[in-house]
């Protein structure tokens, strides 16, 4: 029996779509959303939380800032890099500048794990685009904290991942990612020294010019 033309076209289109699916990314998002729906039900008692979350039509969950932000723990990028699970170190990652301890998920975040690329850095961009190596469609480093050029849908994906870490019953919030104050001070000293050197050079040049001018006047007399 011949297959109707419309059915053949539909099957062909489905095959093209399936061929373009990143199955690893699809499964990552599926289990992420499953975990989020369970967390929403646990925290808010909403037994129907799974349906909108799994369909991607859920209302965004607002992440509350720390009540005592001034006393909240801060982590520099250098310190974050050291939290990679090696030599007994915990596993930390950062998303939108918020650092989480994901050591409990070492099977996934440890060396060789599916999510190991996110450990020891703020890779917010990767959470939004799904790109975890090289450069993305905009030509920027995938494993970057920059959100430049991301679409509204990609920014929403980042928020979904942030919700996962914020509400997970085994992952914990550690603190905020900050620039190293020591590095800032050293950079400021270097800038000040450079300005002083430049100013000193101009002064020396003027003195030499004055001396040459005086000698020239003496010769003429």
Strand order of the largest sheet: 1-4-3-2
The fraction of residues in strands falls at 5-15%
| Total E-strand runs | 4
What is the distance, rounded to the nearest whole angstrom, between the alpha carbons of the first and last residues? 118 Å
**CATH fold-level label of the domain at 69-180:** Flavocytochrome B2, Chain A, domain 1
Full CATH superfamily name of the domain at 69-180: Cytochrome b5-like heme/steroid binding domain
Helix content: 40-55%
| Backbone shape | globular
Task: Note the total helix count.
Answer: 8
User: Helix and strand string, N-terminal first?
Assistant: HHHEHEEHHHEH
> Mind telling me the C-alpha Rg?
28 Å
Mean pLDDT: 81
Q: In the CATH classification, which architecture of the domain at 69-180 applies?
A: Roll
For this entry, what is the oligomeric state of its chains?
single chain
Return residue spans where pLDDT drops below 50 for at least 5 consecutive residues.
6-11, 205-209, 214-221
Derived structural class: alpha+beta
CATH class of the domain at 69-180: Alpha Beta
How would you sum up the major sheet?
4 strands, mixed
Short description:
With 221 residues, this protein is of the alpha+beta class. Among the domains are: 20-59; 69-180, Flavocytochrome B2, Chain A, domain 1, CATH 3.10.120.10. It is built from eight helices and four strands, in the order αααβαββαααβα.
How would you sum up this structure, described in words?
With 221 residues, the chain is an alpha+beta fold. Among the domains are: 20-59; 69-180, Roll (Flavocytochrome B2, Chain A, domain 1). It contains eight helices and four strands. The chain has helices at residues 5-20, 23-44, 50-55, 77-82, 106-109, 124-129, 152-167, 181-220, and strands spanning 74-76, 92-95, 98-101, 172-178. A four-stranded mixed beta sheet has the order 1-4-3-2. Helix 2 crosses helix 7. It is globular, with a radius of gyration of 28 Å. The termini are far apart. The model is unreliable at 6-11, 205-209 and 214-221 (pLDDT under 50).
């Amino acid at each position: 029996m011949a297959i109707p033309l419309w059915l053949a076209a539909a099957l062909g289109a489905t095959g093209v779509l399936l061929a373009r699916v990143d199955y690893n990314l699809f499964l990552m998002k599926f289990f992420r959303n499953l975990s989020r729906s369970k967390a929403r039900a646990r925290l808010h008692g909403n037994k129907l939380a799974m349906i909108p979350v799994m369909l991607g039509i859920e209302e965004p969950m607002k992440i509350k800032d720390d009540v005592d932000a001034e006393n909240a723990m801060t982590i520099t990028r250098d310190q974050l890099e050291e939290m990679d699970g090696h030599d007994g170190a915990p596993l930390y990652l950062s998303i939108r500048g918020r650092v989480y301890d994901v050591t409990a998920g070492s099977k996934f975040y440890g060396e060789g794990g599916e999510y190991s690329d996110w450990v020891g850095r703020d890779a917010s961009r990767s959470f939004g685009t799904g790109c975890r190596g090289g450069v993305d469609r905009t030509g920027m480093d995938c494993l970057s904290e920059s959100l430049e050029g991301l679409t509204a849908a990609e920014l929403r994906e980042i928020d979904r991942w942030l919700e996962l870490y914020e509400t997970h019953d085994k992952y914990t919030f550690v603190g905020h990612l900050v620039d190293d104050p020591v590095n800032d001070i050293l950079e400021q000293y270097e800038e000040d020294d450079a300005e002083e050197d430049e100013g000193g050079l101009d002064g020396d040049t003027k003195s030499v010019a004055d001396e040459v001018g005086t000698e020239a006047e003496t010769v003429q007399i």
